Amino acid sequence: MDWMEYTILTTTEASELVSQILLDAGSTGTMIEDKNDVAANQRPEGQWDIIDEAIAQRIGDDVKVTGYFEVDGKLADRLAFIEGELRRIQGLDLGMDLGKLETLRHDVAEQDWTESWKAAFKPFRLGRHMLVKPSWESVTVEPGDHIIEIDPGMAFGTGTHETTGMCVTLVEKYVKPGDRVIDIGTGTGILAIAAAHMGAKPVLATDLDAVAVRVAAENVKINGFEGVIDVRCGDLLDVVQESGDVVIANIISDVIVMLAEPVKARIVDGGLFICSGISVERRQDVLDALKTADYELLDDLTQGEWCAMAARKRG
């Protein structure tokens, strides 16, 4: 089977929007290459580096968002949809720099595509003690480390974005053994697995994307948490009846603003809402939504162009 890599040049703040356009067009997944992610995941001077600085130089200044499409009879329609959406967002006042929105195409055989993942995906840290690695890489484990083994295959990125790192920092700080945790929009399942490493049980991971659910379930099995993490496909309010001590949502600002009030029904009194995917421009909107919904703000982190928050449900 042959595939087309379709890359759009954009900015950090617009990368999630562009990624969603590719997914809406039918991409089997997306990969975001942003040199800011490399700096965010380096270790302090004097300790071993997780990611080679050469990767940042290779990526360059443009953020590259790449989708993957089968070369079949539907490809032309998919590409026309993408180009139409790019023209549409250029005409909107979205309050963000969209970047060049130039497109690059590259045809690749499936085996070559898979090997390109292996060349780009290196071990890195999330938070203080979560060490993310693919199965084909060996790592040096330090005291207190928890290994999260992720083989993204042809589906998703690997969690190097600032939003994921800040969420893991908050998970390490607030999730306690025995906490019931709900992870909304789980993607590859990294945050659910991190919560399980902190002793959370049970953990419920949900995603609207059936491909994400399959990938997350595979990663849950790889990491030995089948009896701890339940992965479900669907919207939080449709597929979750349980309540959690901690609800995690690493999505986008608009969804967090929308969820702030209704998600309280799935958080126990005194429980926590950890949220990220918040651009710095939308930080105040999210703070206002949390205040209106009567949360107590506990943490407000910023890294690069992104924010993450932890808030307690009063009661």
Number of helices: 11
Helix-strand category? alpha/beta
CATH topology of the largest domain: Rossmann fold
Q: Order of SSEs, N→C?
A: EHEHHEHEHEEEHEHEHEHEHEHEE
What is the distance, rounded to the nearest whole angstrom, between the alpha carbons of the first and last residues? 55 Å
The biggest sheet, with number of strands, parallel, antiparallel or mixed sense and barrel status, is: 7 strands, mixed
CATH superfamily of the largest domain: Vaccinia Virus protein VP39
**Helix amount:** 25-40%
Strand content: 25-35%
CATH architecture label name of the largest domain: 3-Layer(aba) Sandwich
Cα-atom radius of gyration: 19 Å
Mean pLDDT: 84
Number of domains: 2
Task: Report what the structure shows.
This protein has helices spanning 15-24, 35-40, 53-59, 75-90, 110-120, 162-174, 190-197, 210-222, 236-239, 253-259, 283-292, and strands at 2-10, 30-33, 63-70, 103-109, 124-126, 130-133, 146-149, 181-184, 203-207, 229-233, 244-250, 267-279, 295-303, 306-313. With 315 residues, it is of the alpha/beta class. It has 2 domains: 2-120, ACT domain (Alpha-Beta Plaits), CATH 3.30.70; 146-313, Rossmann fold, CATH 3.40.50.150. A 7-stranded mixed beta sheet has the order 10-9-8-11-12-14-13, sandwiched between helices. A 4-stranded antiparallel beta sheet has the order 2-3-1-4. Helix 6 runs parallel beside helix 7 (190-197) and helix 10 runs parallel beside helix 11. It starts with a strand and ends with a strand. Residues 38-59 and 153-157 have low confidence and may be disordered.
